[in-house]
Design goal:
By secondary structure, this protein is mainly beta. The protein has 2 domains: 7-181, Immunoglobulin-like; 260-338, no CATH class. The protein is 6% helix and 33% strand. The protein has 2 helices and 19 strands. Strands 1, 2, 5, 7, 9, 10, 12 and 13 form an 8-stranded mixed beta sheet that branches. Strands 4-3-6-11-8 form a 5-stranded antiparallel beta sheet, with no helix packed on it. It has a two-stranded antiparallel ribbon with strand order 14-15. The longest helix has 11 residues, at 310-320. The radius of gyration is 37 Å and the shape is elongated. It starts with 6 loop residues before the first strand and ends with a strand.
Length: 340
């Protein structure tokens, strides 16, 4: 299978330029990857989602209140909001963080589509982790377009976001999300293999969909087979599973073993009296065939219910089929049932 081309569109976070190493600044970590690893760009396959944890890095001192303003209003054609979680200490929603339960507030679209506002508070002060970082909350975004999307993270406009940190000292961040597209046309998905069909590109999600196997002639009595070496279709085999199958009347099934009478117990290609002792030797006496003198000695409880009765005849015929002796064929030519 040939390699599929990969078309890359990007979402990247670019941090505010020029902040000092110890200056408080917003950072983003991809949730669920273990540990904490701040990133400045994220790849998301189109139609897929990514959850991001938002931090105030280098917060250093405990905080009484904080939050952030998230804006991707210029990229709503390519990235959409799915959900958000507040940093509750009990871990019941979003990432575990230092904020008290009930003190986080999320406002979706405070300034229209593509805007979010987090406000978190803790009267006793929230202490940063060992690296001096404070987690604020998490957001889940979904890629829906084919262009780069930018997400900016700032303090909340026109209000004091952080206490006691001075908001003027907090550097903003801008996240760019790279959107990965697997295909743009059907040709991008073609693996060149005939027998698995022609692949399609689901353009809305840049996703290659498997093809429909090409070898189906619509005839239930033929076996559909694809030759992977010659890349051709074959329909020469009979699909009948028993001599009761209607396909046994079709020319494709002439001579098929599944359509033979099942009474040729001595395998001489003829159903005749010589088959009776073979049958009795293989399957025992019953009150129907060479009756027992003592029913308790019969070995014909074919449905295993502890009794030899009419139900066993039905079960026998289901298991061993027709013959000129038992549930005869309408006609039996050689060792094959022939139906009207």
């Amino acid at each position: 299978m040939k390699n599929l081309p990969t078309i890359l569109c990007a979402v990247i976070i670019i941090f505010g330029a020029g902040y000092a190493s110890a200056q408080p600044h917003y950072q983003v970590d991809v949730a669920g990857e273990g540990g904490k690893s701040f990133v400045n760009e994220v790849d998301i396959s189109v139609c897929n989602q990514e959850t991001l944890d938002i931090y105030l890095a280098d917060a250093d001192a405990p905080q009484i209140a904080g939050g952030c303003w998230i804006d991707f209003s210029s990229s709503t054609a390519d990235i959409v909001y799915v959900s958000a979680g507040r940093a509750f200490t009990d871990g019941s929603e979003g990432p575990t963080g230092p904020w008290d339960p009930g003190t986080g507030v999320l406002v979706n679209e405070p300034a229209g589509p593509g805007t979010l506002m987090y406000v978190v508070a803790n009267l006793s002060g929230a202490s940063p982790d060992g690296d001096g970082d404070l987690i604020i909350g998490s957001i889940t975004l979904e890629s829906v377009g084919s262009h780069d999307a930018t997400v900016t993270i700032t303090t909340i406009p026109a209000v004091d976001t952080w206490i006691p940190i001075d908001d003027a000292s907090v550097a903003s961040a801008a996240l760019v999300i790279h959107q990965i597209c697997g295909c743009m046309t059907d040709a991008d998905c073609d693996d060149g293999i005939f027998c698995n069909g022609v692949e399609d590109c689901y353009e809305e999600c840049c996703l290659c969909l498997p093809g429909t196997p090409p070898c189906d002639d619509g005839d239930p009595c033929t076996v559909n087979d694809c030759d992977w070496d010659t890349q051709t279709c074959n329909y020469n085999d009979c699909a009948a599973t028993s001599q009761f199958d209607p396909c046994c009347n079709e020319p494709i099934c002439d001579g098929a073993s599944s359509c033979y009478c099942w009474g040729d117990f001595d395998c001489d290609e003829d159903v005749d009296a010589a088959d009776i002792p073979i049958f009795l030797g293989d399957f025992g006496r019953s009150q129907y065939f060479n009756p027992c003198t003592n029913e308790n000695d019969c070995n014909a409880d074919f449905n295993c219910d502890g009794n030899v009765d009419a139900d066993d005849l039905t079960k026998f015929l289901e298991d061993f089929g027709r013959s000129q002796f038992f549930n005869p064929c309408p006609a039996c030519v050689g060792w094959r049932c022939v139906y009207p």
